[in-house]
Amino acid sequence: MGKILVIGARGRAGRAAVTEARSRGHEVTAVARTASASLADGVPEAGIVAGDVTDAGRIAELATGQDAVIATVYDGGTDPALFYPAAARALVEGIRDARLIWVGLASLLPDRNGTPLMDTPGYPQEHRSFYLAHQAALDTFATSELDWVSLAPAGDFNHADPRRTGTYRLTAADPTALISYADFAIALLDEYERRTHSRVMLGVV
User: Fold this and answer.
1) Does the reported pTM lie above 0.90?
2) How far is CA 91 from CA 23, 114, 141, 159, in A?
3) Quick one: DSSP state of residue 3?
């Protein structure tokens, strides 16, 4: 079994990834901005260790000896135009031998015509600066030598139905598509175990 670092382990996608990885027998280090030994965060077993995703030195320390880094990060208190590029730079600088699996945005995925979802007619634009901040992170990965892949829900997460159905598929962007966090975590761990894709964005439903 492998060793996986999950950054953003207190978020819903992060918690699901930790749970799925441990259910498969992988050794998981769960990371959030602040440490906690409590299980109330929803992360079973070993608790959470502290780590700032924008700190390349700390990323290097945590990623040493890991096979993969799953990063699902958000900072509501920081300008996303600053946060996401900084996080991407720190991951590129800090990860030496591990593979990065980045949880991205549906807004950046191409639809069936090849148009990024955020550029399709009628798509909400009030958060466009957030979309572009995520794109800046992907641009940083793309110009690096890092082995990375970005997975995103093809449309959105299904907040109303959190059930794990055990199935998913890869698809183009579709604003009507929904996937539970638990099923999305299956896709993340399958990508880790199978290493099917590299340096691409993938939509999951």
Assistant:
1) yes
2) 26, 28, 9, 29
3) E
